[in-house]
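Example S7 (structure tokens).
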């Protein structure tokens, strides 16, 4: 068997039906939608319609909220950083911060900062600059001879009001 001989199974695909192209085509005029009524019109959406009964999504109570001031942190365990140092993605002698992690391809997307957690072991002497770190992670890095510096998170919400007015 060669790549140029590969075919779909017979009858597995159908050609698209072109509707609304003249009465003689068999699917012209009403285009297979029947006559009148809600479903024959464009823009109809009956998703969640239960024949007039109160729909499930309206019977269930609303719960929770979205905090517009919530911060989104990229999470790294100390074992992730150690593995990156072992694989020569990160240089243990330089400061490890958000920019360095992006450059190494370990961080993608938009975050308000990075947070270091303590899963795994760290052997390298790392100098880390992060937005946050757990106590156990700080202890693990300091035990290996490194240091974690906590940088302040930039506020992403509206500025706080002053009392000067």
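Recovered sequence:
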């Amino acid at each position: 068997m060669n790549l140029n001989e590969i075919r779909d199974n017979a009858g597995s695909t159908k050609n698209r039906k072109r509707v609304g192209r003249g009465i003689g085509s068999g699917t012209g005029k009403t285009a297979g939608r029947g006559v009148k009524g809600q479903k024959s019109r464009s823009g109809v959406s009956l998703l969640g319609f239960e024949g007039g009964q109160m729909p499930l999504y309206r019977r269930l109570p609303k719960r929770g909220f979205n905090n517009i001031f919530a911060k989104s942190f990229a999470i790294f365990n100390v074992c992730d950083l150690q593995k990156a140092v072992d694989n020569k993605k990160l240089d243990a002698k330089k400061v490890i911060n958000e920019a360095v992690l992006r450059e190494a391809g370990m961080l993608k997307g938009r975050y308000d900062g990075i947070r270091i957690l303590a899963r795994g072991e760290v052997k390298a002497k790392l100098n880390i600059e992060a937005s946050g770190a757990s106590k156990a992670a700080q202890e693990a890095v300091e035990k290996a001879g490194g240091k974690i510096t906590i940088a302040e998170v930039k506020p992403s919400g509206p500025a706080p009001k002053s009392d000067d007015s």
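Notes on this example. The beta strands are 73-77, 95-96, 113-117, 127-130, 132-133, 147-150.
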